[in-house]
Amino acid sequence: MTTPLTTWSWSDFSPQGIGSSDSIRLPRHGWFALVAFLAGPASVHSAREEREPLRWSSDAGTCGRRPLLPEEVEEIERELSAYLAIADVAPPPRDVEWRLSLPHDLTEERFWNRVYATFDPVEFDRPGRGPHVAARLRAELSQLLN
């Protein structure tokens, strides 16, 4: 039997702000969802998703934006769920993204530098290694944010 990465679930993430004015938007994407979940509800709150319109361009030089089609949203949800499944993390509720509150002495640049130095995406994608890589990231996030 394996030990769970965390003691919380997605339902523990409050839609209320944490109280820090220094917060980082974590859009609805597998990588950011993993960071949000592993950072935990003491440092992260949920927010209504700010879905970006799709940007497009043509060979003729025209460009524009349009809302995502329902099938594109479904593909994003499948990819997000598959990414989190590598780390044995359940899919998050729909239509949310997250805000990560940083301690006052931690800059966003320093935060991401430490996170990227800890997380090995190649190892994460190796069969059976995702939970181990996620556990290292969880430990680093705990150290950074507490």
Q: Describe it for me?
A:
The chain has 146 residues and is α+β, with helices and mostly antiparallel strands. It has one domain. It has 5 helices and 5 strands, in the order βαβββαβααα. The strands form 2 sheets. A 3-stranded antiparallel beta sheet has the order 1-5-2, covered by helices on one side. A two-stranded antiparallel ribbon has the order 3-4. The two termini are 28 Å apart. The mean pLDDT is 90.
Tally of distinct domains: 1
Give the percentage of residues in beta strands: 15-25%
Class of secondary structure makeup: alpha+beta
Strand order of the largest sheet: 1-5-2
Q: What can be said about the biggest beta sheet? A: 3 strands, antiparallel
Mass-distribution shape: globular
Number of helices, where a helix is a run of at least 4 consecutive DSSP H or I residues: 5
Strand tally: 5
At a glance:
This protein is of the alpha+beta class and 146 residues long.
Give keywords:
146 residues, alpha+beta, 3-stranded antiparallel β-sheet, two-stranded antiparallel sheet, 5 helices, 40% helix, globular
How do the strands and helices of this protein lay out in sequence?
Elements: E1 23-26, H1 30-39, E2 44-48, E3 54-57, E4 63-66, H2 70-86, E5 96-101, H3 108-118, H4 121-125, H5 130-145
Antiparallel strand pairs: 1-5, 2-5, 3-4
Helix pairs in contact: 1-2, 1-5, 3-5
